[in-house]
C-alpha cells in the first residue's frame, strides 16, 4: 500500500499558496484493507474512505470510462493493480495531475510543474472532453489564477468549444452547475470565468441571457465602455475588488439582462430594461436553482438599480415605495446589499471606477429615517390593523420628507 498526496494540495504548495483541503490516493490496496485499518467508507459510486483520526478523504486509485451523458456518466474501476499514473491521467488539468509521497518526492507524468511555471491551464488527455463539468472547472481555475498570469491553452479551449457544441452541457444538473458557478463568482477575478465561458461558446449554452449582452451598445455619455457585456464584466470585477458576498455578485451578473431584449432600432437607449429583464433574471435563477437570497436580490437589483442611481432625485413617496419593496424594517441587510450592488454598477464603467457614489449614504440615511418612526405612539392613539399600517406609512413619509430637506 502506497499513499500519495494529490491534486490541489500539491499544486498550491508548488505555487506557494496556502493549502487547505488535502486529497489522498491509495495505490496497491483493497477496500477490505482500508476497513481493517479503521478507515470509514463514504463513497457510494467509488471507494473513498475517511481517515480514522484526521477525517481526510483517501480514495483508492481508479480508472474511469465514459458510459453515458453528463458529469455522472462514468463507470469506475478500482483495484490494487491500478497505478498512480493511471489514476492521475483521468484528472482534468496537468497542474491537478501531480502527486507527492510523504517525503515530498514529486510524481509528475503529465508535466504539470512545467505548466505551472509557464502559467498554462492545459488538459491532461483527450478524455477531458468526456466530462462537461470540466468546462466550468477550467473557467473557474482561470478566474482563480488570472492574477498570477494563467491562461487556458489554445488546444484545451478548443476541446471546451467542442464540448459546448456537443450538447453535453445540457446534461449537467442544476446543482452541479450552481456549485461551480457560485465558487467561480467568489474567486478573485470572476469576470474571467464569464469571459472564458464566452470564449469557448459555453456561455451561449448555459446563460444565453448574459451572452446576448455582448455587442449591445449603451449611451457613451453614461457608459464610456459602450458594450453592455463589457459593462457586466466590469461590474462583476468591481464586486470582487470590493469583496462583496455571493448574493451581490450574482445580482451584479444579472442586473442588466433586459438590455439584451432592446430592439436594435432603439439602441443605444434601453427604456424600461429594468422591467423587461425581470423574466430573464427569473429564468436564470430557476435554471440553476440559485439559493433564495441570491434569487431575491438579483430580481430586486434588476428592477430597482436605476432608482438607486437616481436616489437623490427621488420624491419622498417614491423613496418610501422603494424602502417598502425591500422590507427594510425586517430585512435591513438585503437593502444594504442592494445599495452596494448599485455602487458596483456605477463603478463598473470605464474610467469611472474611483468616482464617489453619494447615493449610497443617502439611501442608508433614508432607510434609517423611515426605520426611526416609532410604532408605540400610534398604538397609544388607538390605531390597529390596516389603519395602523396606513398611519405608519404617513409618519414614515413625513420622516422622509424631513430627511430630504435636511440632506
Question: What's a concise summary of this model?
Answer:
This protein is of the alpha+beta class and 407 residues long. The protein has helices at 8-15, 31-36, 84-89, 112-118, 133-145, 154-166, 174-185, 190-199, 202-206, 208-211, 228-241, 246-254, 273-276, 278-287, 292-309, 316-326, 332-347, 359-371, 376-380, 385-406, and strands spanning 2-6, 23-27, 40-41, 48-50, 57-60, 62-66, 74-78, 99-100, 106-107, 120-121, 151-152. The strands form three sheets. The chain has a seven-stranded mixed sheet. A two-stranded antiparallel sheet has the order 6-7.
Explain the overall architecture.
The strands form three sheets. A seven-stranded mixed beta sheet has the order 3-4-5-2-1-8-9. The protein has a two-stranded antiparallel ribbon with strand order 6-7. The N and C termini lie far apart (73 Å). The chain is elongated. Helix 15 (292-309) packs across helix 17 (332-347). Among the domains are: 1-110, Beta Polymerase, domain 2 (2-Layer Sandwich), CATH 3.30.460; 376-406. The protein has 407 residues and is α+β, with helices and mostly antiparallel strands. Helices cover 51% and strands 9% of the residues. It has helices at 8-15, 31-36, 84-89, 112-118, 133-145, 154-166, 174-185, 190-199, 202-206, 208-211, 228-241, 246-254, 273-276, 278-287, 292-309, 316-326, 332-347, 359-371, 376-380, 385-406, and strands spanning 2-6, 23-27, 40-41, 48-50, 57-60, 62-66, 74-78, 99-100, 106-107, 120-121, 151-152.
